Amino acid sequence: MTTHITERLNQIHKLCEKALISNDDNVLKQLKDKCTCSIDVCKKTPSEESLIELLKQYAQIVLDYTYVDETKLVDELFPQDTCKERIHTIFVWIDTIEELVKKCLPETSMVDCLGHELVECINWRKGALLYMLCSTINGDSNREDQINDEFYMNVKQGIEYLQQMLTGRTNTSEWEGDQDAVNLVNMGIYSDTHLLSMMYAGEMCYWLCNKPGQSTSDFNPKVIGQDLLSKYIVCAKLPVMYGWSTDKAEEFVKVMSS
């Protein structure tokens, strides 16, 4: 049952070893050690409970491993000659998490196995990476030729990932806290990352509104963007969210409403 997990962990372990030859990185060292520990656990016959814990560990290892190159991509401003392949590789690795959950526990959903926070993190990381890619291209006058069909496809995909993050939890009735906290939860905001996700998705909807033909019967970027940004503005203005700016969001809503 754990054979597939072991194979993937061995792959990450070898990749970390290879990277450490030229890069004495503490994160990679820690990841290598985590892989070794999880591989040792895989040698035992796990119960369903311990298998779930092992899959959670694997998910965290993958997210930590892919974050190394995600950070480099952002720092390097998504170099045109390599970013597409590197983002694809990151997504392939992140997708192995769901692949292994389905293979090891086919009757268990991702949320039941990993929990809301990890599943949301997976969607956040994909959506945020596409946002950063498209934001970098959109803000560089020397890369105007890259604002093409592929750019808008990435924008739309990024919106979908961030929407999945924001709509993953439906039961908020048991949430406790002051009224501001309850109001945030009722709008799908459980953390600063959720609020940032709402802003990112709304801004990407604004970009899509600049290109004709992006609206379909089940995807209207103007409607989605106005809804997300209006909620963002309400949340960001709550006293508990002191310090969050709404200037850009209000500007986008004004343009999309005209």
Task: Give the topology, please.
Elements: H1 3-22, H2 26-42, H3 48-75, H4 83-104, H5 110-114, H6 116-138, H7 149-166, H8 179-186, H9 192-209, H10 221-236, H11 247-257
Helix pairs in contact: 1-2, 1-3, 2-3, 3-4, 3-6, 6-7, 6-9, 7-9, 9-10, 9-11, 10-11
Task: Describe the overall structure.
There is one protein chain. The chain is mainly alpha-helical and 258 residues long. Helices cover 72% and strands 0% of the residues. The protein has 11 helices and no strands. The chain starts with a helix and ends with a helix.
Topology pattern, helix = H, strand = E: HHHHHHHHHHH
Round the Cα radius of gyration to an integer and report it. 20 Å
Low-confidence runs (pLDDT<50, min 5 residues)? none
Helix content: over 70%
- Whole-number mean pLDDT: 92
- Major beta-sheet overview: none
Shape: globular
End-to-end separation in angstroms reads: 57 Å
Strand content: under 5%
Secondary structure category: mainly alpha
Give the count of helical stretches: 11
Tell how many strands the DSSP assignment holds.
0
